[in-house]
């Protein structure tokens, strides 16, 4: 057994060898991204609502940001997927990793109210193009190297390395003085595009064969016609595939619930239990350690046995438990317990990427991943329209009844629906497998009986 696990780990490492120059800069990126999470709540609250534990203005601004990002990403993410397939992954990665330099440079310089507003404007732009797209661009890049049957494990290793980066980011944020965090973050963000430009090799063969004077740079009308045609083709690809339709449905409701929870969770915990930077960092460090185990060890071991859909179902169940425990939190230690389930639900992403990748041709990886990301963006647009005002209302003294976590429990209900739907599909699949096994066994017994009868007659 140990030998099998060692062979599996060794195989996973071999799958990642061609991806080193992709994962190194993205590790820097995710370390920097995660370093900002725990400190941003305190910075924004101090600037917008000084000397207050609850900041409705910050909750509304975050909800507004998520709504704007969701509206624009509905169009931008499928377009990025098309451009990644047509013109290469490297160019898109360079663009997306560069954008975070500017908003955090503002906070490194000044954290007053005006600079926080300016940060939100620039951060919204970087969110539109970078947040969520970098990971599936990396997955599309990896799919160019990895064989289909190994993709689930390879994608899990990739997201596991991202989790390791998150852990390093949280540890750094926990012990680094707050006044130095944004300076370090800006330096790491600036290093990413430099490394990609110098060392990353383009993998998309179609992009390398294109002429530099292609229609992308010529007639604007022709550009729009080409993009519209490509968008239409992508929609047809998804609608004609039962698997892609199903994963789009699952991704929509999962993101509808989880993005709503993530958007308000830290502000909710700050109001409910007085959490600060240190508690956020401790929770996230716990989560990152668990995510490393889930993505690097658990998924490569259980995926070949149970399949992508079963792994996805397990992740969805953990996400429901995470949301309900936080929404019903009755003591300050309960969010730490919920963090254990967050360590498991992270497997939703790599299993989803694997399902999409296996249902799509190699030439259309970016289109399919971008389309599903666009569906998730619709959910990210809809979620804060209800959950941000609800959270602000139930955290305020004028709440209709005392239930501060009402909005988070409501978001969990969205994920319950998709989990039940997926369970029904898995049950039907299991019944089909059992029926085929029974039918095969019956045919085998019939054949053995006929063979025995002929032998006795002879």
From TrEMBL:
<dbReference type="GO" id="GO:0016020">
    <property type="term" value="C:membrane"/>
</dbReference>
<keyword id="KW-1133">Transmembrane helix</keyword>
<dbReference type="Pfam" id="PF07690">
    <property type="entry name" value="MFS_1"/>
</dbReference>
<feature type="transmembrane region" description="Helical">
    <location>
        <begin position="403"/>
        <end position="420"/>
    </location>
</feature>
<dbReference type="InterPro" id="IPR011701">
    <property type="entry name" value="MFS"/>
</dbReference>
<dbReference type="InterPro" id="IPR020846">
    <property type="entry name" value="MFS_dom"/>
</dbReference>
<dbReference type="GO" id="GO:0022857">
    <property type="term" value="F:transmembrane transporter activity"/>
</dbReference>
<feature type="transmembrane region" description="Helical">
    <location>
        <begin position="314"/>
        <end position="333"/>
    </location>
</feature>
<protein>
    <recommendedName>
        <fullName>Major facilitator superfamily (MFS) profile domain-containing protein</fullName>
    </recommendedName>
</protein>
<feature type="transmembrane region" description="Helical">
    <location>
        <begin position="92"/>
        <end position="111"/>
    </location>
</feature>
<feature type="transmembrane region" description="Helical">
    <location>
        <begin position="117"/>
        <end position="140"/>
    </location>
</feature>
<keyword id="KW-0813">Transport</keyword>
<dbReference type="InterPro" id="IPR036259">
    <property type="entry name" value="MFS_trans_sf"/>
</dbReference>
<feature type="transmembrane region" description="Helical">
    <location>
        <begin position="247"/>
        <end position="268"/>
    </location>
</feature>
<keyword id="KW-0472">Membrane</keyword>
<feature type="transmembrane region" description="Helical">
    <location>
        <begin position="180"/>
        <end position="201"/>
    </location>
</feature>
<feature type="domain" description="Major facilitator superfamily (MFS) profile">
    <location>
        <begin position="22"/>
        <end position="429"/>
    </location>
</feature>
<feature type="transmembrane region" description="Helical">
    <location>
        <begin position="152"/>
        <end position="168"/>
    </location>
</feature>
<keyword id="KW-0812">Transmembrane</keyword>
<feature type="transmembrane region" description="Helical">
    <location>
        <begin position="283"/>
        <end position="302"/>
    </location>
</feature>
């Amino acid at each position: 057994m140990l030998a099998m696990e060692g062979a599996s780990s060794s195989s996973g490492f071999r799958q990642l060898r061609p991806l080193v120059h992709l994962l190194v800069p993205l590790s820097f990126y995710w370390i920097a991204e995660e370093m900002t999470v725990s400190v941003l709540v305190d910075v924004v609250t101090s600037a917008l609502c000084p000397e207050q534990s609850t900041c409705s203005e910050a909750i509304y601004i975050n909800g507004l940001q998520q709504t704007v990002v969701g509206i624009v990403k509905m169009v931008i993410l499928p377009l990025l997927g098309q451009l990644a397939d047509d013109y290469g992954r490297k160019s898109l990665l360079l663009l997306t990793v560069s954008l975070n330099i500017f908003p955090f440079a503002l906070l490194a310089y000044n954290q007053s109210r005006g600079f926080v507003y300016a940060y939100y404007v620039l951060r919204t732009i970087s969110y539109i193009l970078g947040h969520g797209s970098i990971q599936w661009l990396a997955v599309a890049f990896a799919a160019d190297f990895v064989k289909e049957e190994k993709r689930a494990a390879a994608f899990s290793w990739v997201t596991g390395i991202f989790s390791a980066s998150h852990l390093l980011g949280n540890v750094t944020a926990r012990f680094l003085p707050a006044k130095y965090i944004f300076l370090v973050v800006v330096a790491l963000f600036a290093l990413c595009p430099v490394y990609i430009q110098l060392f990353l090799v383009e993998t998309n063969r179609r992009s390398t064969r294109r002429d530099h004077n292609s229609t992308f740079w010529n007639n604007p009308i022709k550009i729009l016609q080409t993009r519209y045609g490509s968008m239409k083709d992508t929609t047809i690809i998804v609608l004609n595939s039962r698997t892609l339709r199903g994963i789009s449905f699952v991704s929509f409701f999962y993101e509808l619930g989880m993005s709503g929870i993530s958007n308000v969770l830290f502000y909710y915990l700050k109001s409910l239990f007085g959490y600060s930077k240190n508690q956020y960092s401790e929770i996230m460090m716990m989560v990152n350690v668990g995510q490393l185990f889930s993505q690097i060890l658990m998924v490569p071991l259980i995926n070949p046995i149970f399949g992508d859909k079963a792994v996805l179902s397990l992740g969805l169940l953990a996400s429901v438990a995470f949301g309900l425990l936080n929404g019903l939190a009755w003591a300050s230690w309960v969010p730490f317990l919920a963090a254990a389930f967050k360590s498991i639900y992270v497997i939703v992403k790599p299993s989803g990427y694997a399902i999409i990748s296996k249902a799509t041709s190699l030439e259309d990886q970016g289109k399919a991943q971008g389309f599903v990301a666009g569906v998730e963006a619709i959910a990210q647009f809809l979620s804060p329209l209800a959950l941000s005002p609800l959270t602000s209302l139930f955290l305020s003294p004028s709440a209709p009844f005392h239930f501060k976590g009402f909005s988070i429990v409501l978001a969990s209900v969205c994920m319950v629906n998709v989990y039940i739907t997926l369970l029904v599909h898995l049950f039907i699949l299991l019944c089909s497998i059992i029926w085929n096994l029974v039918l095969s066994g019956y045919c085998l017994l019939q054949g053995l009986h006929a063979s025995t009868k002929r032998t006795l007659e002879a």
